[in-house]
Amino acid sequence: MKYSKQRELILQALKDNPVHPTADYLYSCLKDANPELSLATVYRNLNLLADNGIINRVSGLDGSAHFDHNTHKHYHFICSKCNKVYDVPYDIAPDLEARTTAATGLKTESADVVLHGICPDCQKLYN
Amino acid sequence: MKYSKQRELILQALKDNPVHPTADYLYSCLKDANPELSLATVYRNLNLLADNGIINRVSGLDGSAHFDHNTHKHYHFICSKCNKVYDVPYDIAPDLEARTTAATGLKTESADVVLHGICPDCQKLYN
DNA sequence: CTAAAATCAATAATGATTATCATTATTGTT
DNA sequence: AACAATAATGATAATCATTATTGATTTTAG
């Protein structure tokens, strides 16, 4: 993996961004200040970084893939109104892999948990 | 919701099918015996049945929506090799909604859990 | 039986993502 | 510093799952 300033830019933007952005959203944030950047490059680099374990790809939320610079084990909450993503600590449901294997015999390697609801910001708006 | 023989057919096929099929897979199973059936009809009816709570739409597995005639609370395991889906009992991680709210304050309405691994059939094949 | 409403099949359109391709940038080496 | 080898880029076309549209047909209420 060679250096590229685009990759540097994308990684930094992800680290500065707490909302678990999609490729498209990240592109829309960056393109004004970086008109030479292309959407394909954003997709390419997010996938490359995720494949190398430097960031986390979070699928199964809402049809689009989201990206997360937090590579520790944790779960996600997505707001059904605004689609913002929040982190949820691992210990609300620890050891799901082992528990699944114990209950079903299915050899389990990883577990994704997605909680759905309405975030505090949207609660206020829709009152 | 009026009666239609296509809907009857699709619902019955889903009940007979333990693998949590996608719309596309269900269509490929039915089209030979029912050449008049169209893929759009399968999509339309699966969504309609799911919206009315008669069946369950399972998203977040692998990019395609899967459908499940089991409407009880439970979780899913998907095989990373063959993409077959298995049911996992609810009690491996009960009360995730309440636990999330307790841990984070996020008002949570539903919880999806997806386990990943290799199913027994594929374990045999890849030994 | 007739008309309004729901349904249908076929196909065009959409949205997210990936592949292609000619060009450019990075790297380790003469 | 020039040199190939390779990886990365921008622009755009292609793909895949799904949804919308359209005009014809079927079902049910009156």
Describe this structure in words.
Two copies of one chain form a homodimer. Chain A has 127 residues and is an alpha+beta fold. The first copy, chain A, has helices at 5-15, 23-30, 39-51, 96-104, 120-125, and strands at residues 56-58, 66-68, 75-79, 85-88, 108-117. The longest helix of chain A has 13 residues, at 39-51. Chain A starts with a helix and ends with a helix. The relative contact order of chain A is 0.14. The model of chain A has no long low-confidence stretch (mean pLDDT 93). The A-B interface holds A 59-61, 63, 77, 80, 86, 88-89, 91-93, 96-97, 99-100, 103-120, 123 and B 59-61, 63, 77, 80, 86, 88-89, 91-93, 96-97, 99-100, 103-120, 123. Chain A binds a DNA duplex (30 and 30 nucleotides) through residues 1-7, 22-24, 36-41, 43-45, 47, 63-65.
Work out the largest interface and the residue count of each chain: A-B, 35 and 35 residues
Give the oligomeric state.
Answer: homodimer
Number of helices of chain A: 5
Instruction: Provide the low-confidence segments of chain A as ranges.
Output: none
Physical arrangement of strands within the biggest beta sheet of chain A = 4-3-5
The largest sheet of chain A is:
3 strands, mixed
What is the chain-wise order of helices and strands of chain A?
A: HHHEEEEHEH
Apparent shape of chain A: flat
Mean pLDDT of chain A: 93
Tally of DSSP β-strands of chain A: 5
Separation, N- and C-terminal Cα atoms of chain A: 50 Å
Rounded to an integer in angstroms, the radius of gyration calculated over CA atoms of chain A is 17 Å
From the helix content, strand content and strand pairing of chain A, which structural class follows?
alpha+beta
Portion of residues within helices of chain A: 25-40%
Strand content of chain A: 15-25%
